[in-house]
Amino acid sequence: MKFIHLSDLHLGKRVNEYSMLEDQAFILKKILNIIDDEAPDAVLIAGDVYDKAVPPAEAVSLFDDFLVRLAKRKLEVFVISGNHDSPERIAFGSRLMDISGIHMSPVYDGKIKPAVLSDKYGDVNVYMLPFVKPCDVRRFFEEEEIHSYTDAIRCAVKNMDIDTGRRNIIITHQFVTGASRSDSETISIGGTDNVDADAFEGFDYVALGHIHSPQNCGSDTVRYCGTPLKYSFSEARDRKSVTVVELLEKGNVSYRTVDLQPAHDLVELRGTYEELTLKSFYEDTSWQEDYTHITLTDEEDIPDAVGKLRTIYHRIMKFDYDNKRTRSNSEIMGDADVETKTPFELFSDFYELQNNQPMSREQADYMNELINKTWEEEA
To answer: pLDDT tier at 336 (50, 70, 90 boundaries)?
Structure first.
């Protein structure tokens, strides 16, 4: 049995104030082409269909069109909600859509029954576990000790009553311990949302969503497929793909990836203004139409640098300098400690950050007098 594993579409997302809807429509068509070439039995979409719980109408329309096209191909499609989705909105109409082979995860209620698919090797049970927090699971199993995300997932899995003698797949959206994150993901402070990989024992393949870079977690059968598009410059060097999973007899599972080429890539460019505007530097590349992060290394600011650069690089998303001034500013910011410094010291740091030089003696005396007067009036 063959599956296409997708996740984290984030339809409706904006990156550095650029709408990604056209790029998302383009990449969904590419995914449909891959599906036609691969002829899978099912498509697994592991959460974060949308970028917001209340997505824009254009994003809903785009996903609706994608589902209709999948249904026309007579595929079984399994969709769960992620942490960016509204579980209730993803679940809407799920019982009606089941008839057409589109299976949307219901809101978690402590009871997860598998969908059963069959091939020449027997049955495959497909479990859909949407993104859940410990409190979501605890309310249905008050007698269980659930203090962490791992506890919650162990409890949820235990109550699925898995038959380990059969082939089992789970689609879920969690942060499995050890996975490498990028800047475009929602991060919990201190890693409190970690789930141990062994919480998924008993499954032949774990189709994960949530992490944006494609990667395995401990084994080839516990896998993030990653996003179909790059959503931050920390992903600029990633190769985006879809994961193709094949299950033969029990215990015989393999996967491979098929690369995705976006309409516009995310690219980081660095150098002097003169270097980046040389025709020989950019003419044989797609950089002019790619989303770019440009870092100029000139010591002096270039007047209207962004406007001038945009005549060559049409989709500049991010722009900054890296020189002695910016590095000095970074050092000033790094040394500042608002908890221990006096108001005068904090203002001195701010002045130097803005002007790249300390205050004069007269300025310092004036500021000290003004601060003391203000504090006396408040007292």
So the answer is: very low
Q: Which residues lie below 8 Å from residue 314, measured CB to CB, with a gap of 6+?
A: 288, 289
Length of the chain: 379
C-alpha distances in Å from residue 245, one per residue of 163, 197, 199: 21, 19, 21
Dihedral of CA atoms 257, 262, 268, 274 in degrees, nearest 10, equals 140
**What residues does 254 pair with on adjacent strands?**
246
Whether 131 and 208 map to the same domain: the answer is yes
Separate counts of helices (H) and strands (E) for the chain: 12, 19
Q: Which of 281, 297, 322 is the last residue of a domain?
A: 322
pLDDT tens-digit series, residues 198-210? 999 989 999 999 9
- Distance CA(310)–CA(274), nearest Å, equals 14
Structure tokens at 143: 């007698």
Distances (CA, A) of 216 to 261, 289, 314: 22, 32, 36
Could you report how far apart the first and last alpha carbons of the chain are, in Å?
76
What's the rounded Cα separation, in Å, for the pair 292 and 233? 9
Q: 1-17: per-residue pLDDT in tens? A: 999 999 999 999 999 88
Residue 331 lies in a domain: no
| Domain that residue 159 falls in | 2-259
Q: Which residue has the tokens 């994150």?
A: 181
Of the candidates 127, 133, 99, 98, the one whose C-alpha atom is nearest the C-alpha of residue 114 is 127
β-strand partners of 199? none
Q: Are strands 115-119 and 122-129 parallel, antiparallel or unpaired?
A: antiparallel
Cβ neighbours, 10 Å, residue 107? 13
The reply to whether 329 falls in a domain is no
pLDDT above 50 (res 221): yes
d(CA 44, CA 76): 9
Q: How sure is the predictor about 375, in pLDDT bands with cuts at 50, 70 and 90?
A: low
Q: Is 183 exposed, middle or buried (0-12, 13-18, 19+ CB in 10 A)?
A: exposed
Task: Indicate if 31 and 131 belong to the same structural domain.
Answer: yes
Q: What is the pLDDT of residue 181?
A: 67
Report the candidate in 39, 129, 119, 121 with the shortest Cα–Cα distance to residue 81: 129
Question: What domain count does the chain have?
Answer: 3
Q: Which two tokens stand for residue 178?
A: 């050890």
Q: Which residues contact 122 (CB under 8 A, 6 or more apart)?
A: 166, 167, 250
Question: Does some domain include residue 191?
Answer: yes
